[in-house]
Amino acid sequence: MQATIEEMEKDGTADNFVRLDSNNILVESFVEGNTNRWDASNDVETCRSLTKCGQLDSNPNCGYCGTSGKFDYDGNGADIKPSVCLDSKVIASYVDGYTNTGTHAPNKQRGNQWAKTSYDCKKIKKQAICDNITTCGDMTVGSEAGDLCGWCPSDSRAKVKTSDSQVKYDGVGTDARSDTASDKCPDIGKAVPQDVDNIPLFTKLTIAGTCIVCDEAVNGEAMGASGPHSEACLSSLWGAPFTDVSGAYSVGCSTNFYDPKTANLNHYRDVKKSYLLIASDMKRVVKRPIAMIMKKYEEKEGVHWSIRGVNGKYRRTQNIDEDVDKLWKQCFGENSRGNVADDFGKDGNN
Q1: Which of 43, 66, 309, 337 could potentially form a cystine with 319 if both were Cys, beta carbons 3.0 to 4.6 Å apart?
Q2: How confident is the model over 112-159, as pLDDT tens digits?
Q3: In this structure, is residue 300 part of a structural domain?
Q4: Per the domain annotation, does 347 fall within a domain?
Q5: In whole angstroms, what is the distance from residue 205 CA to residue 116 CA?
């Protein structure tokens, strides 16, 4: 004769059976101390009824799974990650940084997405929003992603930002105690090794509404960290001003970047590296040398520079060496020699 449920509960044999919860999910918890299957089933129900990250702090038996987006039971506080919470397969970064010192490798995954604390739960949820950003322009002003995320130009990925546009989950301070992966923006605040002025190319994440043309998608993909880059991007880098550390001399090239008669630097067109590195190279080989010559000759008696007073171009009253004069023509479309007031632009002075 088969025993009834009431009889099994009376003699304790009910603990030898598994059962289905209200969601028809098989409960397979083991007896641990005073905890029996019925208590475990109640914990499972409790955990799956949670709706907010903050509730985890008062429910130590529960956790949040970022890959499923659900709260679940975690074995009576034994820190047993449910097998149903798989590691994240979201790509965490694209390149390792323009100075080759970044910490992210290509195709790196986020890994553990099981949160036991409200901090990690909120972190995972916010990171997921930014991970879904594919181009800088996706961070529209006033949107959830626009308020939460910042764009890292050195790996073309969005990160959760702080109020001053730094990386929020950077693995230090409070975040050092987190059990989930931190974020890195490769080489933020670092200078390219060849930069004699040691000026970082960027010091903050790009915020919504301030994305530049080089961070726009090319054929639907964000290529700023790798290239090749659009003509609009390279032209904007060519025209962007370089200002020396004194702030007195600023050089931004006014020629058409793709005109072989002037710039003739089309080798950047198919370069597959960060636009930050290309901008640094343009500064190093063209703009900075011009600015330094301006500074050198300005300090000599009787030498005069026109501060973009004629057709937006610099001109000087004396000739300078051929190499710099060549750079000058690339950048401004005119040779450097000529009298500013009297014969600028006349035949024989170009």
Answers
A1: 337
A2: 899 999 999 999 999 999 988 989 999 999 999 999 999 999 888 899
A3: yes
A4: no
A5: 29
DSSP reduced 3-state for 330: helix
Q: What range does the domain containing 46 cover?
A: 18-85
Choosing from 215, 245, 276, the residue where a domain stops is: 215
For residues 121 and 115, the answer to whether their CB atoms sit within 8 Å is: yes
Instruction: Pick the closest to residue 55 from 115, 144, 130 (CA basis).
Output: 115
Residue type, 5: I
| Residues 284, 287, 290, 295, CA torsion sign | negative
State phi, psi for 158 to the nearest 5 degrees: -90, 145
Tokens of 97: 């940084």
The total domain count for the chain is: 3
Per-residue model confidence as pLDDT tens digits over 208-237:
999 999 998 888 888 898 888 888 999 999
| Helix/strand/coil for 116 | coil
Residue that the structure tokens 């000529």 belong to: 338
* Phi then psi dihedrals of residue 77, to 5 deg: 75, 10
Q: For residue 94, tell me if it sits in a domain.
A: yes
